[in-house]
Design goal:
The structure holds 2 protein chains of 2 kinds.
Chain A (H helix, E strand, L loop, with lengths): L2 H12 L2 H21 L8 H16 L3 H13 L1 H7 L1 H6 L1 H32 L4 H7 L6 H11 L3 H26 L4 H23 L1 H30 L1
Chain B lengths: L1 H20 L6 H16 L4 H12 L6 H8 L9 H26 L17
The chains are: A mainly alpha, B mainly alpha.
Subcellular location (chain B): Cell membrane
GO cellular component, one term (chain B): plasma membrane
Membrane topology (chain B): Multi-pass membrane protein
């Protein structure tokens, strides 16, 4: 085939949703394969690998993100139903939930305040602007909520979106190692911490390892969304009014 | 399978409607999670069809974050100023939060029943 034909073929294919969808699944499969090859080392996170591969492809082929998303949206859409489906593993933990509800609520509030306070403090002493601080504050909840909170307290929602994804990736890749160092073996506590600290990406990671961890991660992620939406604006006005 | 997916979508739809209607700070799917959970509490025993559908959706939960992740990473050069405080605070704060919360919860959660699997390290299927 001539190079000109190839270019035409690419132009044709790149307008089809099929391409974006296929790239997404192939890149994730490669990521998952590498993850298993590495003996399930959390640093070889399939999401991170897939994002890197796809971002590189888009960059090299100069494909705009919107064109890629035409295909990838079918995968993206399932995020909503999958979040709803978290109710099922959660229900399987009903006995623990009943016995430990006050502890769970306390743990979520603790994690939420800890995440916000530590981010703001560290960034403040490293000289971040007020706008950046406000964009960072809600980083440990799921993207749409975090962007809403950031807008409310004067941050830049687009910057917040970046912070949320980076937080999820850091938590999912390095969080398990930190918990191993401390010697924590309770899957419920480990999952819970992943949901509070690294939202959905942490929860997805927890599900890859252990179903109990995944259930607790989903629980703390959901509760943390509510806790953070309520506490961050309050904390912000208390600190910087 | 179809009925189970339909039920999940109905929960999400109601969640979205409630979220919009009362301009709640919580996104629709999270409210849908709550609705489905309440439904399971009422029903007591979840139908196998539903648990199978949910488990299938969640096995590759992490795949579903890829499209949004790509969108954000392609925007990353917008974070030109303040990149050091941003990166440092995100890494330190996230790991600190995870470590402290996991430690706290491992002390506070009541001892696991024998089958809760504190010692079980199973892979994803």
């Amino acid at each position: 085939m001539q190079p000109a034909d190839l270019t035409q073929l690419w132009v044709y294919l790149s307008t089809k949703p099929l391409t974006g969808l296929t790239i997404t699944l192939v890149a994730y499969s490669i990521g998952f394969w590498l993850y298993q090859k590495s003996n399930r080392n959390p640093v070889c996170n399939p999401v991170v690998i897939a994002i890197a591969i796809i971002a590189a492809i888009l960059h090299v082929t100069k494909t705009p993100y919107s064109v890629y998303f035409d295909g990838a949206q079918f995968v993206h859409f399932l995020l909503g139903p999958a979040t709803v489906a978290l109710a099922v593993p959660l229900f399987r933990q009903l006995e623990t939930l009943k016995r430990a509800l006050p502890v769970i609520i306390f743990g979520v509030l603790f994690g939420s305040l800890m995440a916000t306070a530590s981010t703001i403090t560290i960034a403040y002493f490293l000289g971040a602007s007020m706008e950046t601080l406000a964009s960072l504050a809600p980083k440990s909840v799921t993207t749409p909520v975090a962007m809403g909170i950031a807008r409310e307290i004067g941050g830049v929602p687009a910057l917040t979106a970046v912070c949320v994804i980076v937080t999820g990736i850091v938590g999912a890749t390095l969080g398990p190692a930190v918990m191993n160092i401390i010697g924590l073996t309770d899957w419920r506590a480990r999952g819970f911490a992943m949901g509070v600290g690294a939202h959905g990406i942490g929860t997805a990671r927890a599900f890859q390892v252990n179903h109990t961890a995944g259930a607790f991660s989903g629980l703390s992620m959901g509760l943390n969304t509510i806790a953070t939406a309520l506490t961050v604006p309050f904390l912000w006005h208390w600190l910087f009014r | 399978m179809i009925a189970a997916f339909a039920l999940i979508l109905v929960c999400q739809l109601f969640g979205e409607v409630l979220s919009e209607l009362f301009s709640l700070p919580v996104p629709g799917p999270v409210i849908g999670l709550g609705l489905l959970f309440i439904g399971l509490l009422v029903k007591r025993k979840p139908p196998k069809e539903l648990t199978d559908a949910a488990d299938n959706l969640l096995i590759h939960f992490s795949l579903l974050f890829v499209p949004a992740g790509v969108g954000v990473i392609t925007q990353i050069d917008r974070v030109k100023s303040d990149w050091l405080p941003i990166l440092a605070s995100l890494v330190i704060s996230t790991l600190l939060t995870i470590a402290a919360t996991a430690f706290l919860m491992s002390k506070l959660l009541p001892k696991a029943p024998a089958d809760a699997g504190s010692t079980r390290d199973e892979g994803a299927k």
